[in-house]
Automatic annotation (TrEMBL):
Protein name in the entry: Endonuclease NucS
Domain Endonuclease NucS N-terminal PH-like: 19-113
Cellular component GO terms, alphabetical: cytoplasm
Main location: cytoplasm
Pfam family, any one: NucS_C
InterPro entries in UniProt: Endonuclease_NucS, NucS_C, NucS_N, NucS_N_sf, tRNA_endonuc-like_dom_sf
Source superkingdom: Archaea
Keywords attached to this entry: Cytoplasm, DNA-binding, Endonuclease, Hydrolase, Nuclease
Enzyme Commission code: 3.1.-.-
Endonuclease NucS C-terminal domain span: 122-246
Protein's job: Cleaves both 3' and 5' ssDNA extremities of branched DNA structures.
Localization (cell): Cytoplasm
Similarity comment text for this entry: Belongs to the NucS endonuclease family.
């Protein structure tokens, strides 16, 4: 266990250096802002990062119990307790932690060697692959437009099936849920209204929640599952082949054919 006065001195230096701070101790937490909350005395993990983020964790759940992006910090001793206050200016919010005991305090100076973070297997990357071969989802399916903007959002892929019906394709890289189905339903409704054509909706994801599947079927929508392998430099959807040409590739092919005919003459 660490003396509270010593913990305060270490915290002040670490906050000034913008270190990564990990503190475990018994505390109370008070939040004021868009709402108000009061976390009673208990053992918590406090995580403070150099960018001003302040997260308070309990020994359960992935997400923090309280979270704040702070603009300013202050520490003080009050009635024998250590008080840490974090404040955000806009919108005005504050998070005040009153520590009665500090079990552990770790300080780390961390620096990224490279800032060019790259996400492998993004929805855009997977969408690009589907544009090459939509028949992996359904035979006769042809792409019309990628990232088609609507009043209520943006369609990942707008396609046409073998019967000439429009098909709205919504792609998810993780498990599809209730919100995914509702998002697809909004897009299908808007396309059907603006285009005046029969419109289907296909939700594409590795898996789907049971309740989401029930809602999907009730709304007359469809689901297609897929698997993708994540490897550098990109992720690959299983079963994808480049079968469908872009308009530019078709143009280039026609140009080459025309030149060959002229040469033969």
């Amino acid at each position: 266990m660490m003396e509270l006065e010593a913990a305060k001195e270490s915290l002040d230096r670490a906050l000034a250096r913008k270190d990564l701070i990990m503190l475990i101790g018994d505390c109370r937490v008070l939040y004021h802002g868009r709402a108000a909350s009061n976390l009673p005395l208990g053992s918590r993990l406090l995580l403070i990062k150099g960018d001003g983020s302040f997260a308070i964790h309990q020994n359960k759940l992935l997400r923090p119990t309280n979270y704040l992006m702070a603009n300013s910090w202050s520490t003080k001793m009050e009635d024998g307790k250590l008080v840490i206050a974090a404040t955000k200016r806009t919108p005005k919010e504050s998070l005040t932690v009153t520590l009665e005991k500090v079990e552990m305090l770790n300080l780390h100076t961390m620096e990224d060697k490279k800032s060019d973070f790259k996400l492998v297997g993004s929805e855009r990357e997977l969408s690009n692959q589907l544009m090459d071969d939509l028949e992996v989802l359904e035979k006769g399916l042809k792409p019309l437009k990628q990232e088609s903007h609507l009043r209520k959002g943006m369609i990942d892929i707008l396609a046409e099936d073998k019967d000439g019906h429009l098909v709205v394709i919504e792609l998810k890289r993780r498990q599809a849920d209730y919100d995914s189905v509702m998002q697809l339903q909004r897009y299908v409704t808007e396309v059907k209204k603006t285009k005046g054509r029969t419109t289907r909706g296909i939700l594409v994801a590795p898996e789907i929640r049971k309740t989401a599947m029930e809602l999907l079927k009730n709304n007359g929508l469809e689901f297609r599952s897929y698997q993708f392998d994540v490897s550098q430099p990109k992720a690959t959807i299983a079963g994808i082949e480049k079968k469908q040409r872009t308009i530019f590739e078709a143009f280039d092919e026609n140009t080459i054919t025309a030149k060959k005919k002229e040469t033969k003459k």
